[in-house]
Amino acid sequence: MTLNFQNDAFCSYVFYSALLLVKMFAVAILTGQVRLRKKAFANPEDSQRHGGLKFYRTDPTVERCRRAHRNDMECIFPFLFLGVVYCLLDPSPSIARIHFRIFFLARVVHTVAYLFALKAPTRSLAYTVGQVPCFSMALKILINVASYW
Questions:
Q1: What's the N-to-C CA distance of the chain in angstroms?
Q2: What's the distance, CA 80 to chain centroid?
Q3: Which of 31, 79, 97, 121 sits between 20 and 30 A of 130, alpha carbons compared?
């Protein structure tokens, strides 16, 4: 199977991957904006530029944004690998789209739950739901390459 834009599963993968990366960029930008608004800088040179070393400090809101971004990296980067390899296995386009869509929606809910401190267990449920398609893709990949082990 080749990966090109005539492959419907690959097109879905590219679409949802691009949305996930845009979401990650948005969280990174939000983190920077919250740093500026809260005057809580991670580096002394930044704090000196914005009022002095007293602003070289942490802030709970900034840290919440950073944790949301870090969690995105921990989950989205593996998805990017699994998704492209999964597309090489010529999956059903509709099943592939379901995998990608569930993961995307779960990550959006997870980010919203993290940034707005929604009541538990919203965030952990979103995380778990997002891991199901990743586990499914990983299992399909392993089954297909097990004979080469």
A1: 21
A2: 9
A3: 31
